[in-house]
Fold these 2 entries.
Entry 1:
Amino acid sequence: MQTSSDNILSAIRIEKGFPGTKALDKVDFHLRRGEVHALLGENGAGKSTLIKCLTGAYRRDGGSMLLDGTEADPRDTFDAQRLGIGTVYQEVNLLPNLTVAENLFLGRQPRRFGMVDTRTMNRRARELLAEYELDIDVTRDLASYSVAIQQVVAIARAVDLSGKVLILDEPTASLDAHEVEMLFRIVRRLKGRGLGIIFITHFLEQVYAISDRITVLRNGQLVGTRNAADLDRRELIAMMIGRELATEIHSAHSDAVAGEPRYRFRNFGRRGKIDPFDLDVRAGEVVGMAGLLGSGRTETAEILFGAHRADSGTAEIEGRTVDLSSPRAAIRQRFGFCPEDRKTAGIVGDLSVRENIVLALQARRGWTRPIPRAEQNRLADHYIRALDIRTPDREKPIRLLSGGNQQKAILARWLATEPELLILDEPTRGIDVGAHAEIIRLIESLREKGMSLIVISSEIEELVAYSTRVVVLRDRAHVAELDGAQLTAHRIVEAIAATNGREAS
Amino acid sequence: MIPIMRAYAGRLLPQLIALTAIVIAISMVFPGFLNLQIQNGRLYGSMIDILNRGAPVVLLAIGMTVVIATKGIDLSVGAVMAICGAVAASLITSGHSLAETLLATLAVGIICGLWNGVLVAVLDIQPIIATLVLMVAGRGIAQLITEGTILTFNDPGLIFIGSGSFAGLPMPIVIWLVFSLIVALLVRRTALGMLVEAIGINRQASTLSGVLTPVLLVAAYVLSGLCAATAGIIAAADIRGADANNAGLWLELDAILAVVVGGTSLLGGRFSIAASVLGAVIIQAINTGILLSGFPPEFNLIIKAAIIIFILVLQSPRFRTGVSFLSIPKAAGKPTEREAK
Amino acid sequence: MKIVKALASATILAACTFGSASAAELVVGFSQIGSESGWRAAETTLTKQQAEERGIDLKFADAQQKQENQIKAIRSFIAQGVNAILLAPVVATGWDEVLEEAKDAEIPVILLDRTVDASDNLYLTAVTSDLVHEGSVAGKWLVDTVAGKPCNVVELQGTTGSSPAIDRKKGFEQALSGNDNLKIVRSQTGDFTRTKGKEVMESFLKAEDGGKNICALYAHNDDMAVGAIQAIKEAGLKPGKDILVVSIDAVPDIFQAMAAGEANATVELTPNMAGPAFDALAAFLKDGKEPPKWIQTESKLYTQADDPMKVYEEKKGLGY
């Protein structure tokens, strides 16, 4: 065991159990001063449980914890903050309707004659943020700034309050590349100041870009702690999922599919959402949609599925014009749609996995023709097995499942309706590596069976891997279509950039 | 069959315990409480009184449960009771037949429900505000119909609904038993229950999955209106008159309370008709128990509030996890999740 | 159709009021609370009748239970220069300013049916019933009727904490005191409604040996008595014989019950508050004779001997 002198935080043989499961089984974790330490594992591996034990959100059942060489046992998150452990979550847990300065000094506002001294507070807020290269109006509401800036404000507050250990729980999930770079500059600077930083993410590139060491958990147990420089990517994934992935991404890039398009959208669009576009989709074809956030990708999906009614253009299936004015109408044409925001638009949290899987099929049959319970069970069990949905049983409320398993259940919901066109909006976002690969395999197998798919993704490599064609979007318009030899990550990025360039000129 | 019974019992366990405790408590304060006898060809006794007096709240709670399951609330039911009682009284006194009167009154209840449903589902007004409109206006409408007086009637058919009996049971009990059975079967033997729960938990996700959200929302409020109309007829028939000022006054709150005591979350989602019916019976048992106890009326509301707080604490998840350490592990989880199909 | 009828009659009334305006020598404004109960509707009807009989031009304003509407109405009466104002105040407080204004304009104000918390030089007189007295009239009737025999009484109170409930209970207990044969065994609130009256009576019957222990029922209003009578009948007893029924208000429906022998007595809370008010006003305007500050209306006792059907027919048309 290492000496505690260069460790700012040592967690030794931490145990935590919940009724029926052992969430952490004698896990050791050591964080050095001035290091960025990535904490990795599939969903359900025990990462968040460990973090919650460290920050006092949970009381550990066993083991000990040394902070700066002394025994520490935080009773709650405030206590942990006081001891020197600050945490920043993916969903910023600040108050959006207060100003930036108020958020920074909430609960410890500088006072004068018993009143909050707003002027001093704003000055100190500006000084504090200057350390983070952030020059913004601190008197504006936090909500008026981007998630990235809110994230930095949260970090500034956490570091200012705590100052020894900073835990970043998926801070980059909703940031774009530029913002991630800004965040990393700040992290490096904090590291230089001697803070110990724990970094949790699903993005492996980012792990390698910033981490000094990597600790991997699996099924509540420590798999190992390694230097990032000595651990190659393949080996890391193997540690995380416990088996070797054949290839992380299939490059079974198929040739363009021949034949008449099954779906023909002409001049399809809706004012304020997406400019009218033409789109053909053939049977057995995956059409990828690439573009930055807000480029109109999601809007395209929503209008195709009838979540928003198109106000121009026509839709044809095999030559006959069809009505796509509502999700029900689209479902009648055997469309399926997995939305981007799983939580608010996908899962029905308190319903069981079974009910979530049969929901769309039941809705199509109508309320008077309930699917018999035995048939529901059969469907649920079939998809739980086929898609490897990890749940103790089919009656578990879906909200208790991990993101990847929720996503698979929603896929199952649509597969149960035997769709002919499946629209997937960011199907792999925010899910763990194992599930990620499985979903990609599923997309390919569905295509091979002759289904048509439209897949939206920010992961360009991924799009290239499974798409037969990729449509590039920008500023709420379809601007390019790439296929065959043109279909490379490089060309897609170029297409996005080129259109950007055209705008600039 | 046995697992179904077990699942039911599991879901209804807290309510059954609460009801039993209250019944035991009352019969300790008032020994004659459990006596039942046959009088004039019908069962007679305090237990029957509870079921009989509870009829309006039970009926309201049935509709309210479904509305609350959609993440809504219907504040107008008390006023709709007053309107429907007034309509029934005024039709029967102006010489219409019993059948016409009943059909027209139920139709008025349905119209009230449609009004609420359209405000909520089509115009997307928050349910609490949308139904507040009819709650306030409804009593005025009822007063307009009765011209501010208690409109009395002597039609034996209509009176029979309030104080007649069938197979030894007072009619109001027969009506709510039949009503709750029909609704419970309707929601659980069809897919309605699941679809309604899905809407209540996540309306957007349900719509995207092809659930006919607006229609089901309107249907929930229509059911609530229909229940309120039936309750209004019973309340009027009971006193042989339509009292627009007092019929159903504050009963919307009792109905909401019944749903909550029944363990259905006000945030929508999972619901159980049987549990809400039990909740309403519990509330009425408390009311009747207080009346029988002979305490001065100043204590009525305090005692009621204290008992209800106690029941709600028993139900709170925190309390139940605390207690579950002491109980047998097999009780955990499964049966409490939901009613069996 | 009821609505249409109501609207039609309202229009006719309005037309009458306006039509007779020019001919009348005395103009009186009447600010009524609203029409929340049958009794109040009857009071409005009778006030209009009384005004018509005396050739008074009555300007009627319905406040819909709002004090601000009443204050507005009084100001408008002052502006119109009426000869006097009748006010049935919705609440007791907050009248000083507007009453001062009336006083400055030298318009006498007469309070009907309720009083206010204001100096009594701000109004001419108040015409109200004595709630305690009503209770004691009912109690005295019961004392006289049972004539020394032991008798267990159950009481249906009005809404807990309301002044009629408190005073009618007090008056009744005063009348009973000293008569050890009469004992109030159960007392619960029935909220002044038929439904609750019936429900509470049901529990009284169960609690007192199926009603065999109960000799008389005293209800703070007739509506609760009507509900209780049904409960007594459904319990297989004869109201009016097995259990004596006495109540207060004298609304038409209780006379039907009395005619059927199911109720025994009621004490009238007369809706004719305007009659004595107009009499006092006439005397004051004629020779400046100040009436007493409180004019107590008669609390008349009606029993089965008073030809209840006839009273019922008289009262039926008053809008109860």
Note: Residues 177-192 of chain A form the longest helix (16 residues).
Entry 2:
Amino acid sequence: MTPLLELRGLTRSYGSLTAVDGVDLTIPRGERHALIGPNGAGKSTLFATVAGTLRASGGSVLLSGQDITSLPEADRARRGMVRTYQHSSLFLDCSVLDNVALAVQRVHRVAHRFDRAARRFRHTEAEARRHLDSAGLSGRTGDKVSALSHGERRQLEVAMVLATEPSLVMFDEPTAGMSAAETERFVALMERLPEDLTVLIVEHDLDVVFRLADRVTVLHLGRVLASGPPAAIRTDEAVQRAYLGSARTEDLFAEAEAGIEAEAEAEAGTEAEAGTEAGTGGPR
Amino acid sequence: MRAETEKEKEQEKEQEQEKDTVTVHGGTPAPPDPAPVVEAPDSAATAGADRPHRRRAAVVVAVVALLTAAPLVLSPYPVSAMTRMLAFAVLVIGVDLLTGVTGLPSLGQAAYFGVGAYTAVLVGVHITPDAMVQALAGLVMGLVAAAVTGWVAVRARGIVFLMLTLAIGESVHQVADTWSAVGGSNGLAGMPPVTLFGGPALLAAGFVYWWVLVVAALVFAAVALVVRSPYGRTLRGIRDNEARMRALGYRPALARYGVFCLAGAVAGVGGALWAQQARFFSPGDMGFEVAALALLSVVIGGAGSLWGPCLGAALVLFVRDNLSASIGGHGPLVLGAVFVAVVFLMPRGLAGLTGGRLRELAGARRRKENSS
């Protein structure tokens, strides 16, 4: 069976800097695939290149075996590949219902009809309400999006994305900036997603990643460091070194413990990589 | 005299809305009744949606009745001034469709207004005095002109779009000013009075007014339908977040081009109506000033609402044509002051004074009902 999404040597460079460097990745239908990696690993660039927001400098993206590398974002969305944004990207001055209905009416091919009022397209309206129901927003259909909380906006994004009837949904750090309760609600929502839906998720919160993902790919300096089931990734030594337990996370804090720093210095290879990585962080 | 009716109209509307507000307040103590407790949020919502609907219908009937009755009580001069306002309001509706609904502020609509007007005069002089044929010809030519020039403009957004439409407007104005076939800077005169259904010429100002009123109401209804339709939703989506539209699989450029043509057609009808009333058209009626006043009407009335900009159009023309003479030609000063006042005091324009606040109240009430 052809995998739903396949990346072959996908490369994206900014000038002389290669943010994504020859990434090969295969995601079968129905898989929950998580993409993790330290800051500056190229996750967001890879994500945007797959979604079509950025153009690839090399390699190819295949959706259900078809090469879509040269297609613009809108055409990829029409083929069932949709993304969410790191910061909620919604139609703030429209009602909650309108937001989801915009997705539904495109799928139903009535987006350019003006012979009847929108609410007379009963099929479209009912479908939009159903999606809002399943995202837990049925009480707020008439409200403007600008009146929603951060967590509710995230729920609305999920409803909107599912309303396009996608085969692949790509979430870009969906739980960023959420409270613990909001994250919990969001993960529950993700767990309820239909079985046959393929999900690619970029996420910083490793608890969320290990709960949701069937398979995890670790990106480091634009390359795939490891790819496998969560349990294997947790114990993978290279990953440990590059990401999970080494100096990388502690680097974020100014007052890192001296002992750990010494340990990190002992690992010369990692240290050399860290130098390049500081450069990779720039364009993100 | 005419100003009074205008004021009456507004007062009428305000009174209607006041009544509505009262109903909203009056409805609030209702929840203690046994019914709402059992009521599902769904049925509460439909009941809430039904009431504003009836309310709106009452307002529409009252306004239409008042507008229809105007020639019966007013003398010809104010009636012809109101005719001009209606024709201008049609242009403004088109500008609002672009600016308020789609988020494309345009300064080029006067060009299509002019194209429609010249078409109507030429049809009137050379072909037929039939008002319907002229209006249709104006519509078609406005549409064609917008279709020919629009594809350049819709590639841009924001300020660049504004500048491109300004360039289109000025170019067309320049052509009208120099082209002898349309009378150059002297304009086109000698248009015979219009007829309807092959009947006698509509010489009385009242009859022309009624004809213009009917067409303006039709245009208003048509644009209102577009705004409520799925296409209107698409346009609002483009206004709010075009990148997201693309991510949902839309091709926004196509929808933008469509609405530009639509707005051109609406402006063409407005121009035809204007010409039929004045029976004369010159480049001065389609210059930058007209385009700017149309945009100003939208801002004053409240972009995105439809009746607000129509009121704005009436106000702007009233100040320019009527009030200006009695205050020593300082009309533009008054308009400027009104503009500044609107921007600072009511960012949603005239429409925000009533509709918005009303909706807020209704929304708050609905939420309260749902949570209880």
Note: Confidence is low (pLDDT under 50) at residues 1-47 of chain B.
